[in-house]
Amino acid sequence: MLISMVVIFALCWFPFNALNMMRDFHLDKPIKHLFSFLFLLAHVISMSATCWNPILYAWMNENFRREFKAALPCCFSKVERVNETTLTRMGSQYRSTVDTGD
């Protein structure tokens, strides 16, 4: 998980740092007319690095998912009940469509 977090962080911050280095070494002349847009885009991508951490935690760590559900039971218990009920009701319908190929 740590390696994934470091890789995501590096990928998110690379465009911003590359753009700043181009500007520092005066290599930005070919993109001068797009610099403001590219700077904004690179800045948004770099700031999105903080949004990826909880997603990585939730995706890669079963303990985090379990504790998150325990911390917010009101959000997940209803969804799980709806999914279980829906799956139970649809179980026979799904099996019949798979068997017939419809």
From TrEMBL:
<keyword id="KW-0297">G-protein coupled receptor</keyword>
<dbReference type="Pfam" id="PF00001">
    <property type="entry name" value="7tm_1"/>
</dbReference>
<dbReference type="GO" id="GO:0042923">
    <property type="term" value="F:neuropeptide binding"/>
</dbReference>
<feature type="transmembrane region" description="Helical">
    <location>
        <begin position="34"/>
        <end position="59"/>
    </location>
</feature>
<protein>
    <submittedName>
        <fullName>G-protein coupled receptors family 1 profile domain-containing protein</fullName>
    </submittedName>
</protein>
<keyword id="KW-0675">Receptor</keyword>
<dbReference type="GO" id="GO:0008188">
    <property type="term" value="F:neuropeptide receptor activity"/>
</dbReference>
<feature type="domain" description="G-protein coupled receptors family 1 profile">
    <location>
        <begin position="1"/>
        <end position="57"/>
    </location>
</feature>
<dbReference type="GO" id="GO:0043005">
    <property type="term" value="C:neuron projection"/>
</dbReference>
<dbReference type="GO" id="GO:0005886">
    <property type="term" value="C:plasma membrane"/>
</dbReference>
<keyword id="KW-1133">Transmembrane helix</keyword>
<keyword id="KW-0472">Membrane</keyword>
<keyword id="KW-0807">Transducer</keyword>
<dbReference type="InterPro" id="IPR017452">
    <property type="entry name" value="GPCR_Rhodpsn_7TM"/>
</dbReference>
<keyword id="KW-0812">Transmembrane</keyword>
<dbReference type="InterPro" id="IPR000276">
    <property type="entry name" value="GPCR_Rhodpsn"/>
</dbReference>
